[in-house]
Structures are given as structure tokens and as C-alpha cells.
Amino acid sequence: MWFIKSLEVPKKSKLKRDIQKLLLITSLITLGIRYPAKVISQQLSKPKINEVNLYSNKSFITKAVERTGAAVVTIDTQRYVKKRNFPRNSQLFLDPYFERFFGLDLPNENRPRIEQNQGSGFIFADGLVMTNAHVVNGSDKVIVGLTNGKKLNAKLIGQDSFTDLAVLKIEGKGPWPKAKLGDSAKIKVGDWAIAVGNPFGLENTVTLGIISNLNRNVTQLGIYDKKLELIQTDAAINPGNSGGPLLNSDGEVIGINTLIRSGPGAGLSFAIPINKAKEIAYQLLNNGKVIHPMIGISLIEESISERKNNVVKVGYVVPNSPAEKSGIKIDDILIKIGNKDIETASDVIEQISKNGIKKQVNILLKRKNKFIKLKVIPTDITNLQNN
User: Fold this and answer.
1) Above 60 in pLDDT, residue 340?
2) Domain boundaries along the sequence of the chain
């Protein structure tokens, strides 16, 4: 009996253990149903990580600025103004100590003073900075500020007022960060445009827009003393941005910020195409000046219903100019220059510039109902100004 009982005990304990296992499994299943968060949360953690990685990627703007931003510089200029309306032989007003001793306060407009201005620029070669001519024009001292905080004196290599470009040489030792120059001939309307500069003294300011128009003639903006065709953009350019780079989406310089439209129509900004800027910069470096071939006429574009394209007429002829000497007259319609059919005023400027000075160019024009062929020898624009 004891043996039987002893056998029965194991049976009961086995049954009990089986029941306990069943209860344990059931409780685990119940626990998994009631508290599923821990298991599910491990499966959802990977998408969250991917989402964070997605937003941590740099934008093309950031990459573009990082590529060129170090080459953008601040340009501080100083001009000493010594305006004195008193007689030169008046020793009383020539000695500032004497003036202070007797309490002789001069009017502010007659006090010697320093005019300070600020603009932007960028390093395009070893120690060479490209900027606008109007930023440094008439300055007695030029200081270039780098993005690392260093400020160095700079020397003006040359400037060209007709294209509003200037080249500076930093007085110091490199190595220098250099901006990569793009190809402005490849840009199209609608491309991204990133303006970098120091508006209102706020260094390394970046604004974004698009290319709004190409080959915008400055005469359309009421500017007649410059020789420029500009890139138009809606990227914000403010005072202090002048001379800074306009970048494409790859961080390459495609233009130099130069003009803004104020008043009605504000929000229009303009930049000098980098291809033209390079041409001018290398002339300044090699020759110290820039040659601008001209024949001495102003141009008017008119739309005629019979023709799909505009016609380009002569609006004015400079006295004693090559144009006048060759027989060109006001209201003549320019048909062809060299081998190029003329459709816009830009075509005329381009062909005369390509021809150069002291070299004859063939011009076909229409006067009333007659076609006339003329030969003209362009001259440098400075010769026209001296007439």
C-alpha cells in the first residue's frame, strides 16, 4: 500500500506540475496580450531611426554654402574727407589743438572725417579678391575680413567703372580658400540662385531664390553710364551684399551681386555674369585696365507688327565718333554686324566687343527703304569720352 500510495503521489505531483505549467503558459500568453508594448516597440524603433536620419541630411543649400562660404570676405573701406572752406593762409583754423584751446567748434561739415563703407567679395585666386568697383571706388584704405575672423589690408589692383568690377590683392600669406567659378552661359531661368554676403554688416548671410531672367540690359533699369548685361534674381540682395557671390545649387559662383531695385518693384536683384567678370578681372590683372570697343551710338529696341523679332534702331550718334565718321545716322535700323543678324541690342554690343578696337567691321543697315553697307573701326570708350 505504501508503494501504491508512493506511486500515486508522483502521479498527483506530475499532474500538479502539468497544471502549473499550463497556468504559467496561459499567464504568459495573457501577459503578452495585456502588455504588448515592449514587443511592438522594438519593431517600431527602426523606422524612427530612419526618420531621424532622413531629417539630418544636409540640404543642397548647406552643401553649396559650405563649398564656397569660406572664400566670401567682408570688405571695409575708409575714405579720408578733408573739407575746409577756410582760407589756406588762416593758421588759426589749421591747428586742431589751437581750435580746442579756444573752444572754436567748427561746423560738422567742415571737420576732417573718415567715411566708412562696407561691402562683400570673394577670393577667386591666390590672395585675389573680386568685388564691385563701387564698393572700393575712391577709398584710401581697404580691409578684407576673412571668415576665420582675420582682418588684412588689401591693395587695389584695378577697377572698371563701366562694368562695375574691381580686383584686390590681400597683403598677407596664404593658403587662401578659393571659390569655384562656374559657367554663367549654362544657367537657365528657373535655376536655383543662392546669394551670399554681408548685408547691413551682418556677416555670412545667405538668401535663396531663382534665376528670374538672363541678359537684362542695364538701360532697361535706367542706367546709361554702365556697360552691363545682368542676371536677374529674386534672391534678396541688400546694401552690403554688393560684390558677394551668387551661387548655383552646386556652390559654384555664377555671378557677382551688384544692383537692387528699390521702391516700386522692390525684390528685384541683379548680378554680373561670372563669365564676363572673369574676362574683366584678367584684363585688369594683365593690363591694369579694360578695353571697351565702341562705335559711338545708343540703341533702341522697337517692336514692329510685320516682324516677329524686334528691330534695333540708332537712337543717338556721338559727335566725332567712328559711327558718325562712317555715316551712321539716327533712326537707322541695324540689320547685320559682321556675319551676325541683329535681333536685340545685346547682339550689337556682343559683336562690337568681339571685333575689338582698331579693326574694321562690316555693318548692314536699313535707312527708310534702302539697305546700306558701311565699314566702321571701333575705338575704346575712353576715346569717345575725350571727344
Assistant:
1) yes
2) 2-56, 68-170, 184-278, 293-385
